[in-house]
């Protein structure tokens, strides 16, 4: 029986959403942080998209955002030449790390003791968060602004991407191990620890490489320019989105396109699977985040599968349900969401 994909729309941002990241699974579920050009990164409950709080303090567009594994700390990278570290429970700013140019990327080590930053000044910086007054270690070698930098191989190595090059660095010696060159601009990079897989998008290509050797594993071509792609935690599927406003879902093993649908009212800038693989989130030029079910029709989070009566001729479709919410209130919520893509950000901290 056919099932219709019904996404949850998370409004609140007022400008394009350019980055997002999930925490690991904690005793309180998992969490989602979004970076936006409005300068106000937001924290949400990961499985429902419910707004928890907004981190206030940046004076420019926020280009990168991440959470540590247990969702106790957040880090953000911004156009105000700073990276900030936050208490993700209270929303308090813990430290501001000054840079000499726009910061694009932030990433915690697994123990949350170090923060890796990168940006337009072409340098990788490693900050000891237990010694915020100490100067960071710096790694040079990129020839253009760095778009993404990630810890890999249990924090023993670093992956970084600039315009057309991906580089692998040894943390201990601070030296380059290997590099990959592309004939067009790299638009995104995701690291999958289980299996040491690197997901790179450039043009219409979605490429998979070994994060240890940078050797190619496989690649797929999409019908449009892709800005971001994500691999399912169990490596069953991959999802991708880009310039044609659509989301594409592929079988990772065969490369077969399983689904594609209009995802947003603007180009999709970022897409990521949740840590349990049950959903994926997308962020767009239209200022919204949307959550999508990996397996349509499952009862999960706010989705509740409601089958039509037999012989009605209707397609089965998942129904979004809210606890203790009447049908009239649901209709009102749906009407409000359809009337406006954007809504003002609540001016409170997380």
TrEMBL record:
Gene3D superfamilies (alphabetical): YVTN repeat-like/Quinoprotein amine dehydrogenase (2.130.10.10)
Listed name of the protein: Serine-threonine kinase receptor-associated protein
Keywords per UniProt: mRNA processing, mRNA splicing, Repeat, WD repeat
Annotated segments matching region Disordered: 317-350
Family the entry assigns: Belongs to the WD repeat STRAP family.
GO BP of this protein: negative regulation of transforming growth factor beta receptor signaling pathway; spliceosomal snRNP assembly
Organism: Cnephaeus nilssonii (Northern bat)
InterPro entries: WD40/YVTN_repeat-like_dom_sf, WD40_repeat_dom_sf, WD40_rpt
PROSITE patterns named among the record's database cross-references: WD_REPEATS_2, WD_REPEATS_REGION
Comp. bias regions, Polar residues: 335-350
Annotated Acidic residues bias: 325-334
